[in-house]
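# step 3/5: fold
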Amino acid sequence: MLKIAFTGAQGVGKTTIVEALKSKLVADGKKVEVLPELIRDCPYPADTESTFNTQLWVSSHTIMRETDIAGDADILLVDRPITDIAVYKELVKANKGMSDAQDLLLTGMIDSWKGTYDVFFHITVPLEQWKTREIDDGFRSTDEGVYTFLAEGFAKVVPDGHHHIENITLEESINNAYTIVKAAM
């Protein structure tokens, strides 16, 4: 089973790329499962109101859900892997605070799980293009400062050997991801 992670700030096109990539791989006869972004299911506050409990819930549920669905697929596409917690926990520390023990727990979970991804995509868009996108879904922050904080954070936590896709044209981004995944199979 090939496990593929997609990371990046909100509104850069991760989910759209994941869904399009799934369609292409299914058309190739592959059994593909998608683990969607879990934060919308979290009972704790999200985004800029996020707390340690939010990040612990998302981390543990990401690991559990990946484990549950991985055995049923040739390919697992993960929209927002556990490595994203490394960035969101910094947002929590900046806004709400987090104890050293809580930080250490989350860091340990991230570090022990991040090596389970076979292919890792970091999706970005230039700020000026991001500002033109329709991302106000009432859930994610549309604040430019939050976007910049997250985008800079994701650039710092992506693992060595990741694939960077600057999502300027969706078709090109999907085709680039597809080419890389096909090579990894």
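# step 4/5: annotate
The first helix runs from residue 14 to 27.
# step 5/5: archive (pending)
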